[in-house]
Structure formats: C-alpha cells, structure tokens
Design brief:
It is a single chain. With about 400 residues, the chain is mostly beta strands. It is built from two helices and 28 strands. It is globular and about 60 Å long.
C-alpha cells in the first residue's frame, strides 16, 4: 500500500492530460483489431498494485475515486485462480482531488476492514454515498459524506447486497438489493416499494427526483403455451406514485425455442423524453434444432410511449452502454463507442511504459470499471486496472486514464 500511495504526487496531471496527451499510444498487444482514428485512452496515473472500481466527478475541483488492494496477509491474496476458494480480504482506499492535487483520504470506519465492489454515487452540493460489500459480498454497507464528515446510512431492513442505486439527495435514495428488494430512503427510514404483480426490476435511472425509471421484466407464463416466459417491463415514478408503462413485446417465430424470454438489463435516462432500455430476447439454447438467433432488446421512451428502435451497427451491435459521454455518444463494453449519429468505433488502449517490473514483451489487458465526464470541460476520466502477463509472472496495477479525442 505504501508504494501505491507514493505515486499520487504525479496524479495531478489527470485533468490536464486529456487535452495534451503524448501521442505515444501503441495499443494493447494481442487485440487483433485495427487501431481506430480519433479517440484513445491515455494513462494519467499508474499505481503499483490493486484496482480502482469507481470514480465520481462533481467538478474539476472535486473528484473522488475508490479502489482496493489485496491484503498481503490474507492466504488467498496472490493465489492463482482455483487455488483458494472464496473471496479474499481487501483493503479499501479512497482518493480525492481538490483541483490542485490528489490526496489519500481515510475510508469511512463504517465500511470495516475489508472492502469489495465499492461504488460512488453523487448527491449534489459536494455530498456523496460510498457503498461497498463485505468480504463474502452478501451484504453492503453505505456511508454518507456531507462535505465535512462521514456518517453511516442505516442498514437495509432485510440486509443484502446493493446491486443498483439512484440518489437525488441525502433524503431521497432508491436502491435495489438482494434480500431487501426495492427500497427508498427518505432521510428517516427505509420503505419497501410495491411493484405490480409479476414485475421484477433490475435497473434504475432518472433525470430528476420526480422522474425516475425502474426496468426489468414481467412474468407472462411458464413457456408451455409456446409464448415467452418474460416480457420487458418498466415502471415510472412521478414524485407521487409508481405507474407501470406499456412496453412492446418480443416473439420468436414458430417453431418457438425452449423457454423464451425478453427482459431489460439496463435503463439509461438521457432526458425526460429520451429514456433508453437495453436487454436481450433469448431462450434455453441446445434444446432444439434450427434454433433462431437471440436478439437485442432496444426500446426508447419519447415522453409518451415506448417504441422498438434499431440496435447499433457493426461491432457496437449487441453491446450495452456503460456510461454517457454528454451529448456526444455512449461508452460501450470492451472500449467500443457509438456516437450520437450512430457511428461505431473502438477507443484505442495504451500500453504501460516498460520498466518498473513491466517487460516490453508483456501482454496487457486494460479493464475500465467506470468512466465519468468532467462537467463543462469535454474531458472524460476512467478508472480500473491493467493486468500484466509476462512469462507466468502476473501483476495488476490500478490506473486512472483520460480520453484523448
């Protein structure tokens, strides 16, 4: 951990490197794809170990990042996959940039000694929520930063791990969690959200406290009637009540494959009249002959109704957005990017500099866990890790990157 923290002195270049860059991007080896023109990631900081799981940008002078470093005293730390079962212990670390430099911040005591799957959610006015799971990842804990100090958010009534969160204020927080289900925090207590019969939601997003969407699927049968077992479903909060909205249905042509279903995995609120829903129409593969291709579920709310829309083209087809790039486009998985006019490209990945334990013949994989635009600047920051494989010697380094356009 001491080595990693020592590298923070040079992290002050994060918010300026986006515009300058060094033009030295060689891409990651073994990728097999042509290098795209226009955009690439550039390393702004390389930490000695661990990984960063999330970043929150309230402004150029208020940026947070959270990550973990495996506990070197834990017997499973450093073990090869399959050698030790179960989750290992991890030390969490928190970074904050005030516009001048990055500084290490102490983790809230409420999160305990071992931190997993940490996420950051903004509250406005400099406040934020930091949520992390315990070692076995079955339960989450949340801490609230009000700009001056940390305080524990009361535990969910039935426990469980937070899988989705949308927060508008310290007294207006919506979560989806295992065991506890769909809950709302009003500043005083957690209350359960009642959903229409048969509806299950798995994703949340919204543009305002009175304009929130939750989406997933509704159960429609057991499939024995030759129809889908699930269909896409979405409910909307207008500040007073939840209301289910009608969504188009998906059907496979005859002969219908085994156990067909369609559902939403991600809802993305671009504007009040532009809500995107992404999912899959699939089935139990291998149960029949001449099976159809599964298809992408792509739906859009225009302010009055949901309609089917075409999927992205080329290598962006079938991919789900992971972050917005303002009104320019969307970041997809595996560093694909689709522009506002539908063009698909791949963001080039840099290699780590040779030296400091990294060999020139190493194979490297950059994995970003979060990307976040810097408001009002056109800049984008990303955090994650780089896995370095070199002749059986494997290491992972936490990284901060910025987008070169």
């Amino acid at each position: 951990m001491r080595k990693m923290v020592a590298g923070l002195a040079v992290l002050g270049s994060v918010l300026t490197a986006c515009a300058t860059g060094d033009g030295g991007d060689r891409g990651d080896r073994g990728d097999g794809g042509a290098k795209p023109a226009g955009m690439s990631w550039a390393y702004d900081e390389i930490l000695d170990e661990g990984s960063l799981s999330d970043v929150l940008v309230n402004g150029a002078d208020d940026v947070w990042a959270v990550g973990t470093v495996p506990d070197s005293t834990d017997p499973s730390a450093g073990a090869s996959p399959g050698e030790v079962s179960g989750a290992s212990s991890s030390d969490g670390f928190l970074l904050h940039r005030d516009g001048t430099r990055w500084q290490r911040q102490p983790m809230p005591a409420v999160l305990g000694d071992s931190v997993h799957q940490a996420r950051l959610d903004g509250l406005g006015s400099g406040g934020l929520l930091l949520t992390a799971a315990v070692q076995d990842t079955t339960t989450s804990r949340t801490a609230h930063w009000d700009g001056k100090e940390w305080a524990a958010l009361p535990k969910l009534p039935d426990g469980g791990r937070v899988t989705e969160m949308k927060a508008f204020a310290a007294d207006d927080i919506w979560v989806l969690a295992t065991l506890s289900g769909f809950r709302h925090w009003d500043g005083t207590r957690w209350s359960a959200v009642a959903l229409p019969d048969g509806v299950t939601v798995t994703t949340l997003d919204g543009v305002a406290s009175d304009d929130l969407w939750a989406a997933g699927f509704r159960s429609t049968g057991d499939g024995t009637d030759g129809h889908e077992m699930q269909q896409p479903a979405a409910v909307h909060w207008d500040g007073k009540a939840w209301r289910q909205t009608d969504m188009p249905e998906y059907r496979f042509p005859d002969p219908v494959p085994a156990e067909p279903s369609a559902s939403i995995a991600r809802v993305l609120a671009v504007a009040a009249d532009d809500i995107r829903a992404y999912g899959t129409h699939s089935f139990n593969h291998g149960e029949g002959v001449d099976e159809p291709e599964q298809e992408a579920v792509r739906l859009r709310w225009d302010g009055s109704r949901w309609s089917k829309v075409a999927d992205a083209e080329g290598d962006c087809a079938g991919r789900v957005p992971e972050a917005r790039d303002g009104d320019r486009g969307l970041f997809l998985d595996d560093d694909r990017y689709v522009t506002a006019d539908g063009a698909c490209t791949k963001i080039a990945r840099p290699r780590l500099p040779d030296g400091d334990g990294v060999r020139a013949d190493s194979r490297q994989v950059l994995r970003l866990s979060a990307r976040e635009p810097v408001p009002g600047t056109g800049q984008v920051l990303g955090v994650g890790s780089v896995q370095v494989n070199q002749g059986g010697d494997q290491t992972t380094k936490a990284v901060v990157v910025s987008l070169k356009r």
